[in-house]
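sorry for the late reply, my laptop died twice this morning and i had to redo everyting from scratch. anyway the thing you sent over, i finally got around to it. pasting the sequence first so we're on the same page, its 334 residues, then the predicted structure underneath. double check i copied it right bc i was rushing
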Amino acid sequence: MSLRARGATVRRGTFTLVADFETPLAGVTVVFGPSGAGKSMLLATLAGLNRLESGDLALDDRVIEDAMARTRTPPHLRDIGVVFQDARLFPHLSVRGNMDYAVKRAPADRAGPGLEETARQLEIGDLLDRRVRNLSGGERSRVALARTLLSRPSLLLLDEPFAALDGRRRRAFLALLARVNAETGLPMIVVTHQIDDAAELADHVLAMRDGRIVAMGAASEAMSRPEFLSLLDTRDLGARIAARDISGGDTLARGVWVRADAVMAAAERPHGLSARNVWEGRVASVVREDDGARVLWIATRAGEIPARITQAAFEELGLTAGKPAWAVVKTHAL
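ok and here's the structure:
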């Protein structure tokens, strides 16, 4: 299953979205980019909440909108579920009532867990008789996800689902999404501007800037491209390391984002360190920053890992392109 957009254009005021991409709908696709890039606008367009001015959208061989041909599948017939930032639960209903609303409108011929089983999977069984207004942000997110899953969509869109959650609840919900995807096989497209969430959740990436897709592909490749890295703040510059390459990686999802500031560089094999993650490699390139600091990109078995060091350290270590080097990362940075 794949999703394709060809010149899909939508205008809102002075902002223009032009989507050109094709991505497989397997696992989780993350739409990443800074605020104002058009990520939520893209999701709304896929859901049918915006009308195309030109171009087309297709799910596999099924064209769901073609501006030139003037054909358009309305939102309720696209077989796409949406979880919005603000949950949009029915305030006059209980949690059970919100979920039952979806059950009654789900396709009769599409099997899946029932209300009680879904509540158990998403750990909201004790909330079923509670009013929506009495839920926390994390509880509202879980109920919104449960309601959408019970509508039995073939594709799930989530717009900044972690926005209202703090650190611990954020990670719990992220892990929940990864588990639901693994257990159900339901493809998901998730919007986020948080690099850590993207690195841990994504199988595929669509990176956006100013209403355009600037990088796309498998997360392991797309997140290392210059076009992707250019979207990051200086403090977030880093690399995605696959879970298999990290000590204790079985507790992680797809990967983790390692920031350049959390990496130490060594010109010789380190000894007597408490750090568990030490990768041997060679300096692939050196980038000089405005303040004189250097970012060493060290090519290792885990990919190219950046280490930000001072000018003095750079001169002392003598680590220039092509020389052997070791990237050292403390466990807490992972």
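Residues 238 and 297 are 10 Å apart (CA to CA).
thats about all i looked at so far, will dig more tmrw
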